[in-house]
TrEMBL record, chain A:
Naturally occurring in which organism (per UniProt): Geranomyces variabilis
Protein name (database record): U three protein 7
Gene3D superfamilies hit by this protein: YVTN repeat-like/Quinoprotein amine dehydrogenase
PROSITE patterns on file: WD_REPEATS_1, WD_REPEATS_2, WD_REPEATS_REGION
Keywords (A to Z) from UniProt: Nucleus, Repeat, rRNA processing, WD repeat
Record flagged with keyword RNA-binding: no
Any Pfam family: WD40
Automatic annotation (TrEMBL), chain B:
Pfam families attached to this UniProt entry: Sof1, WD40
Location in or out of the cell: Nucleus, Nucleolus
Keywords linked to the UniProt accession: Nucleus, Repeat, Ribonucleoprotein, WD repeat
Protein name per UniProt: Sof1-like protein domain-containing protein
Biased composition annotated in UniProt, kind: Basic and acidic residues: 414-428, 437-449
């Protein structure tokens, strides 16, 4: 209501305005603003989704009242959730520049002087020159860090306390490291096989079915460890039951780019021919294939909301995509092909290329001219970067060790204890482990639409049957699809009787049919006459003298 | 120097997330803080996780479904009537076919009082409200009023016909007995103060309405259900059904609704103001239903049948919520819902009274707040996803004895073939000659006033 707003502003600017009227109007306006704010916020928290069923069309009284109350409850829940935002204890960080200053020119050393002691202790470099190019990974609560050097050095630590968990040297190539569901276990992709270690560094499992793996990804809600490697097979291993859930042949050769969509657990692989493919364990072909680059894909990252994707390729491009429309939002040219990407909880995009890491703010919304923060790790090559969850910290693994860099405003300030708790105790961790195992989602439930369960598929029958055909053919490559015609409700005697009657020819039916056809013709003729189209006159024959002529003619 | 300057200029322009190590709690003795962030982006797979929880809930429910609490054994012959104490939760009266009456303590599952009350069957027991007294009737044509204090009756009333049932008025010192007619007795009179009859050969059961206290209903061997009012001298109305009604239960919360247990394996809920059609038909028994009792909440009722099963129905639903059976339990002649709606009792031909939980998988005993809220949560999650096939299948599955499963199958075949026959008849006769008949009206033959 811009009109109202303007009025109120003018009355406020007028010093002689009647106090009582403005006093009356002010709460009204405040109320309107509050309502609008709440509506916007409740949009964010609307979990039920807007129902398009007009309640007026529901005839069943019981159903109607039930629908009404359900809708009311969900609306109220959204509103209360929005109101509870006020109670969130922390606010996000920021970095501001004045006048001629540029935020990307601030170095870590400068920031270290300006931030509190707690934050400055989070900036550190570990010089580990011997075992080269490190991969990094944080646990889901951001408390523990796992690093794996190319030449076989693996270490875990509680990085904020500076407490070393375990340190082992496996004496063979380490290509990737990944935490499993919590800090008690992690997986390492080594020269030949993939191994699982516990928090003391003891080898728990050797996964002999996962050979020559380049990339690891762990789906925490499904307890699935996914691997992809030189042979181009995507394999899913259930870490709670130990079963190999799926082996999918990508048919795209060697693959060393993989990331998960945190909203729907779809894995995105980047291939040598410039495509990004999306996979679910139940379907043997990719759900989506996107041609993203004109050269091999180097890195893929997806944001927390599962809406935006960033890719980089050897063609020197970085592209940002909208995963709802699969359209390219922005394109950037990178000086050298970027090796790694990461997106923070708050949507900051970090790009690692050569010795540089640059962090971009609002990159998905508008095309940015300059980065938000940049960091140079002189003399090193960036191997892997990862934002620490619930902290303003970016972990960088490079050829000379690892660095922990503060990026203000990157992390989600308010964690949910029920989801990921950076301060969890041992007993809380154990309890969470049991609960998350109980809530484990079955791998069959991985689909593009994560919230499909409990909704009604409103697509027409043809669309559904077509989808079924595609799904079936994807899973049975060399067989022909024969649709099952389920004859529901067709077996009652009444139906059978009526079906039989359709083939019976009787005089009455024929008469009716003829009559209907004649009427149809008549209607057609009337329509033409109304349009002014002249009827074609048949040439008159000698026999026409015996036929009756219409009176109108 | 330059660096220092730039550093100084950054002061106040940079803020980062900074929580101390003491963020989780202030002092070591405190409990850990729980912080919530309801942003949907922070909670992926909400629906899938809820669904998994609902699935786990129904699985656990089936796993923990152990409804049998205990058997009260002591009667030598079949138990033909039980009654709840009007004020004491743990006291139960029972009468058996050999004329014995017992009082039970449900907490210890032991008999506290017993006597040989009648020659032959004890046909009915009715507690006297606001007292420890109770009335029994037998086939020996005698009504006796008892008190726990002695094994001799307080009062004896003699009639001309063998009794089939008794029920006490909610407030007044009056009780009704059924035999060939309905007799209304006053505690202080030796002869009935009033009697009602409307053509029945034998009245099998009589029940007072506990809300509209002067109204009562009876059912008879001539397939009738008759409504009466004490304030009038003649019955109110009579309904004739296709088959005989065995028992009646008034809904304690909806004064005008009652449910009858019928010989045709079904129960019917009626509104006494509109008797030409049932409000609901409750199907699932595979043999005659012999007794019925409402839960004090009016939401559920329990039935016992000749098929040796106890079933619990939601009062508004057409099919049973649960079915209880044991190997040794014989024909069930009487069932009762406990006054806290937590237990059901069944008395059967094998001489035992069995105590069951009303919710088969519910935990007995004191529950903590956390337990209760967890139960409430799982219940609502289950309710949300109850229509999904996997959950519905597990939730509805009940293992029943082979004889019952077979009878159920046979019954289905019979119903389907009858339907087919009717359809055929309809298709081959003049339109309108074989009209459709609503299931709720089918079994009501006539209503008389």
């Amino acid at each position: 209501m811009p009109g109202q707003k303007g009025k109120a502003a003018s009355s406020a600017s007028r010093p002689g305005a009647d106090v009582t009227t403005s006093g009356v109007r002010q709460p009204d306006e405040k109320q309107v603003m509050d309502e609008r704010k709440q509506a916007a916020a409740s949009k964010k928290y609307d979990r039920a989704g807007t129902t398009n069923i007009p309640l007026r069309s529901v005839n069943d009284k019981k159903l109607k009242s039930k629908l009404k109350s359900t809708e009311k409850t969900s609306r109220q829940a959204a509103l209360q959730a929005a109101q509870a935002e006020f109670l969130l204890p922390q606010e996000a960080g920021y970095l501001e520049a004045e006048g001629m200053e540029k935020t990307w020119k601030f170095t870590q050393a400068q920031m270290k002087d300006a931030v509190d002691l707690n934050t400055s202790s989070k900036m550190f470099d570990l010089k580990l020159n011997d075992f080269g190019a490190y991969s990094v990974d944080y646990t889901r609560n951001g408390k523990h860090m796992l690093i794996g050097g190319r030449k076989g050095h693996i270490a875990t630590f509680d990085w904020k306390a500076g407490r070393l968990g375990c340190e082992v040297h496996v004496r063979e190539t380490v290509r990737d490291v990944k935490w499993l569901h919590n800090e008690t276990m992690f997986a390492v992709a080594q020269k030949k096989y993939t191994y699982i270690y516990d928090n003391t560094g003891m080898e728990l499992h050797c996964l002999r079915q996962h050979t020559e793996v380049n990339r690891l990804e762990f789906l925490p809600y499904h307890f699935l460890l996914a691997t992809v490697g030189n042979a181009g097979w995507l394999k899913y291993q259930d870490t709670s039951t130990g079963k190999l859930v799926a082996e999918l042949r990508t048919k795209q050769g060697r693959c060393d780019v993989m990331t998960q969509n945190p909203q729907n657990a779809i894995l995105n692989l980047g291939h040598g021919n410039g495509t990004v493919s999306m996979w679910a364990p139940t379907i043997s072909t990719p759900l989506v294939k996107m041609l993203c680059h004109k050269g091999p894909v180097r890195a893929v990252a997806i944001d927390r909301g599962g809406i935006h994707m960033a890719t980089t390729g050897l063609d020197g491009q970085m592209k940002l995509w909208d995963l709802r429309t699969y359209k390219c939002l922005q394109q950037y040219y990178t000086k050298s092909p970027a090796a790694t990407l990461a997106i923070s909880h708050q949507g900051l995009l970090a790009v690692g290329y050569g010795p540089n890491v640059s962090v971009w703010k609002d990159a998905f919304r508008t095309k940015q001219k300059e980065p938000y923060v940049s960091h140079l790790s002189a003399g090193n090559t960036i191997q892997d970067i990862a934002f620490c969850p619930y902290e303003d910290v970016l972990g960088i693994g490079h050829s000379g060790g690892i660095s922990s860099v503060v990026v203000p405003g990157s992390g989600e300030p308010n964690f949910d204890t029920m989801e990921a708790n950076p301060y969890q105790t041992k007993s809380q961790r154990q309890e969470t482990e049991v609960h998350s195992l109980l809530d484990k989602i079955q791998p069959e439930m991985i689909t593009m639409e994560a919230d499909f369960i409990g909704t009604v598929d409103r697509a027409p029958a043809e669309v559904i049957s077509e989808e079924r055909r595609l799904e079936w053919e994807a899973n049975h490559p060399n067989e022909k699809f024969v649709p099952k015609h389920k004859a529901r409700g067709k077996s009652s005697s009444q139906r059978r009787y009526l079906r039989k009657q359709t083939n019976v020819l009787d005089g009455r039916r024929n008469e009716l049919r003829e009559k209907m056809e004649a009427e149809k013709k008549e209607r057609e003729r009337d329509r033409k006459r109304a349009l002014g189209e002249v009827e074609e006159e048949r040439p008159r024959t000698a026999l026409d003298r015996f036929t009756k002529r219409a009176k109108t003619q | 120097m330059v660096r220092m300057d730039a550093g100084l200029s950054l002061l106040g322009k940079v803020k980062t997330i900074s929580r101390g190590e003491d963020f989780a709690r202030d002092r070591s003795g405190d409990i850990y803080k729980v912080t919530r962030n309801l942003d949907p982006a922070a909670h992926p797979f909400e629906r899938a996780r809820e669904y998994t929880r609902a699935l786990n809930t129904v699985k656990l429910e089936r796993l923990f479904a152990k409804p049998f609490v205990g058997a009260l054994s002591g009667h030598i012959d079949g138990v033909y009537c039980v009654a709840k104490h009007p004020t004491k939760l743990a006291t139960l009266f029972s009468g058996s076919a050999d004329g014995e009456v017992r009082i039970w303590s449900l907490t210890s599952q032991k008999t506290t009082w017993t006597t040989r009350a009648h020659q032959g069957f004890v046909r009915g027991i009715a507690p006297v409200p606001f007292s420890d007294n109770f009335v029994t009737v037998g086939e020996d044509k005698i009504v006796k009023m008892w008190n726990q204090e002695s094994t001799e009756p307080l009062n004896t009333f003699i009639s001309r016909a063998a009794f089939t049932g008794v029920d006490h008025h909610r407030t007044k010192p009056l009780f009704a007995t059924s035999s060939t007619q309905i007799d209304i007795w006053d505690h202080s009179r030796a002869e009935p103060v009033q009697n009602f009859s409307w053509g029945a050969e034998t009245i099998t059961s009589v029940k007072f309405n506990q809300t509209e206290t002067d109204v009562f209903a009876s059912c008879g061997t001539d397939r009738t259900v008759i409504l009466y009012d004490l304030r009038t001298s003649s019955p109110l109305s009579k309904m004739i059904m296709k088959m005989r009604t065995n028992a009646i239960a008034w809904n304690p919360m909806e004064a005008f609704n009652f449910t009858i247990a019928n010989e045709d394996h079904n129960c019917y809920t009626f509104d006494m103001r509109k008797m030409d059609s049932a409000m609901n038909v409750h199907k699932d028994h595979v043999s005659a239903v012999l007794d019925i009792d409402y839960s004090p909440t009016g939401e559920e009722f329990v039935t016992g049948g000749y098929d040796r099963t106890v079933r619990i129905f939601n009062a508004r639903e057409g099919h049973s919520r649960d079915v209880y059976h044991t190997k040794r339990m014989q024909r069930i002649f009487c069932v009762k819902f406990s006054m806290d709606a937590k237990f059901v009792l069944s008395g059967s031909d094998d001489g035992n009274i069995r105590l069951w939980k009303a919710a088969a998988s519910e935990k007995l005993g004191v529950t903590t707040n956390r337990e209760r809220s967890a139960t409430n949560y799982t219940k609502s999650v289950k309710d949300r996803y109850k229509h999904l096939p996997e959950i519905r299948r597990i939730d509805q599955h009940r293992r029943v004895p082979k004889s019952i499963a077979k009878a159920k199958y046979t019954k289905r075949v019979m119903v389907e073939s009858a339907k087919k026959r009717e359809d055929n008849e309809r298709n081959h006769s003049k339109p309108g000659a074989v009209p459709y008949k609503a299931e709720r009206k089918k079994n009501v033959l006539a209503n008389e006033k």
